[in-house]
Amino acid sequence: MDAKRIAAEKATAYIDHEMVVGLGTGSTAYWAIQKIGENVKRGLRIQAVATSIQSENLAKALGIPMLSMSMVDSIDLTIDGADEVDEAWNLIKGGGGALLREKIVASTSKNLFIVVDERKLVKKLGAFPLPVEIVTFAHEITQNKLRALGCIPVLRMKEQHPYLTDNGNYIVDCDFGSIDHPEELHQIINMIPGVVDNGLFIKMAAKVIVGYQDGTVIEM
Ligand SMILES: O=C(CO)[C@H](O)[C@H](O)COP(=O)(O)O
């Protein structure tokens, strides 16, 4: 079985009746949502909140009862993927462009379980360029300020046009090289006017579940 799928399905075993569950975004979270959908069909009573329109549509199609973000002030468990996980469980997220909603949902969750395949584990963050969500109308100014922090910013494109997030913003993928101080970098980036949020998730994960190519899964 696919390494992402094993990790994602393992995480769903922690979901219990009456929980409010946060649904992540991406190809790993996809497998968690599929499994939750199966379990709901078998009688699991939960309500869920999605971190993207894509995940919301998938969950609705599978019959998972959904709540909008404005309807919840606490989420029991969120299952989401990541682009990189370091040894302190700091994360880079946003490869799928959903980092803002993912961070809002994560910050509202009692527990954030990160599901990844083994390739996402790194000693230091930064081989994956850091996604930064920025407002559209001042994107050149904002990109210049990001560049001044020492990165190479690249405006994310989709079919010849700048990629737009679910929130109507742009994403800039910022290559900082190896990130020595993720917590500081997180704060400095978010101080720039025009930045909505960045894909560093600092000390937010309560558990990391890793799927391996050989079919094993390890919970950390
Ligand atoms: O942060 C994300 C989306 O914004 C995803 O969790 C991250 O990109 C990992 O995706 P995948 O599971 O497809 O590898």
TrEMBL record:
It holds the Pfam family Rib_5-P_isom_A. The keyword Isomerase applies. Pathway: Carbohydrate degradation; pentose phosphate pathway; D-ribose 5-phosphate from D-ribulose 5-phosphate (non-oxidative stage): step 1/1. Signal peptide: none annotated. It catalyses: aldehydo-D-ribose 5-phosphate = D-ribulose 5-phosphate. It comes from the Bacteria. Keywords: Isomerase. Substrate binds at residues 25-28, 80-83, 93-96, 120. The keyword Oxidoreductase does not apply. The active site is at 102 (proton acceptor). GO terms for molecular function: ribose-5-phosphate isomerase activity. Its EC number is 5.3.1.6. Homodimer. Catalyzes the reversible conversion of ribose-5-phosphate to ribulose 5-phosphate. Belongs to the ribose 5-phosphate isomerase family. NCBIfam families: PRK00702.1, rpiA. This is Ribose-5-phosphate isomerase A. It comes from Paenibacillus hexagrammi.
